[in-house]
Write a structure and sequence with these properties.
237 residues; alpha/beta; Spore Coat Polysaccharide Biosynthesis Protein SpsA, Chain A; seven-stranded mixed sheet; 7 strands; 40% helix; 18% strand; globular
Length: 237
């Protein structure tokens, strides 16, 4: 299948989407979280940051930027933060879709908006963002090999055929999100959520996204070593 990106013009968005709730796991991202939240606000009315025991003022900055902040008193891991955010959003009847979005600035708002539109247009339970459906994202050959290995292991264990298994940008429709119950707290949660979404039996698709690998995001863990850790985490768990 050939994918053509129909990335929307955010300047043309009349008002923020009030039915798609953005959930952001947040841990010590004080230097970038203001920009992430303010970037999302023109497109989405509801932005939920789950502060996972940050010690750098991330929660205060996210709140000041316009996000609703739910707090974990101690660090429980990204999987736990994601689950808390999903449950919080589902508690509100206005929530029709959940957009999972990373806090480090590597995801593009334009891609999230386009994925929500795709979910509604094609009546999809889940839309997975994939950096490997086109050549805009350049992670480096070694990291690409590791990520492709993670994809292979994930597809083998979940029965779903993805091109990018550990991309945090997803759109999950309410009926699919209600069947997500994450138990893995570290990076293995990304495989666990794929497995649980596959088991819903609801239709899904992938959307080509561009990940922005900055010096900051690489320093925060978007490295080859982190890819190795993901693979080890998968095998061990």
């Amino acid at each position: 299948m050939e994918y053509v990106s129909d990335t929307p013009d955010l300047g043309a968005v009349a008002r923020p989407d009030s039915a798609a709730w953005v959930v952001i796991p947040l841990y010590n991202e004080a230097s970038v979280i203001t920009g992430v939240v303010t970037g999302l606000r023109p497109a989405f009315a509801h932005i939920v940051c789950v502060d996972d025991g940050s010690s750098d003022g991330s929660a205060r900055l996210a709140e000041a930027a316009g996000a609703v902040v739910v707090r974990h008193p101690i660090n429980l891991g990204q999987g736990a933060a994601l689950q808390t955010g999903i449950e919080f959003a589902l508690h509100h009847s206005s929530c029709r879709e959940i957009v999972t979005f990373d806090a480090d600035g590597q995801h593009r708002v334009e891609d999230a908006v386009a994925m929500v539109a795709m979910s509604r247009r094609d009546d999809l339970g889940t839309v997975f963002g994939s950096r490997f459906l086109d050549d805009r994202t350049r992670p480096g050959w070694m990291k690409k090999v590791m990520l492709k290995t993670v994809v292979w292991v994930t597809n083998l264990t979940t029965g779903i055929r993805l091109t990018d298994a550990h991309n945090g940008l997803r759109v999950i429709r309410r009926d699919a999100a209600e069947q997500v119950h994450l138990n893995q707290d570290r990076m293995a949660h990304a495989t666990e959520i794929v497995l649980q979404l596959a088991r819903t039996g609801l239709p899904w698709d992938e959307y080509p996204v561009e990940l922005l690998y900055t010096d900051y995001s690489k320093a925060k863990g978007q490295s080859v070593l982190n890819s190795v850790n993901i693979l080890v985490d998968l095998i061990v768990r």
